[in-house]
């Protein structure tokens, strides 16, 4: 044992170094299983602080983004999520938009938001459209199917709207019309 342990260790070290390095490639998908991607993250990777989220400020609304570029766990094979937190002034609206690669669930935390989306009413007649519109209030959730053009407007009279958006893709895409 004593005679052979030194050369074995010398052979093993580069292998261990490679395994450690390859495990650090987060969140590389390619040949990694969902388990391997998930298991490479430490516990705190699964707790996401909005305080550290990227903030974009516009004249009448702001949005904090929790995205895979900053929080790679969001790109894990079995997570695939993108989160946004909007604070919208009364009467403000987002640009008409769609997300080609993900559906969107919007939790209304505060205020009331008019949320609409449009799709073909008759698949054989592309010009016949159906518009779904709801005023969604605090403790209600709006569902926006993948790829559909939608509008979000804060219709509260006094208080800002607070909306939490969850997309079922780390890269849902964002197309403004
Ligand atoms: C978890 O991993 C992140 C990123 O690699 C690191 O910044 C953080 O300090 C780690 N946290 C703990 C508790 O090990």
UniProtKB/TrEMBL annotation:
Main location: secreted
Pfam families in the record: Cupin_1
Segments forming a coiled coil: none
Single GO cellular component term: extracellular region
One GO MF term: manganese ion binding
Keyword Protein biosynthesis included in the entry's annotation: no
Subcellular location: Secreted
Cross-referenced InterPro entries: Cupin_1, Germin, RmlC-like_jellyroll, RmlC_Cupin_sf
SUPFAM superfamilies, sorted: RmlC-like cupins
Domain Cupin type-1: 63-172
Signal sequence, start to end: 1-24
Keyword Secreted: yes
Keyword vocabulary terms for this entry: Manganese, Secreted, Signal
Taxonomic superkingdom: Eukaryota
Family assignment from sequence similarity: Belongs to the germin family.
Protein name as annotated: Oxalate oxidase GF-2.8
Organism of this sequence: Gracilariopsis chorda
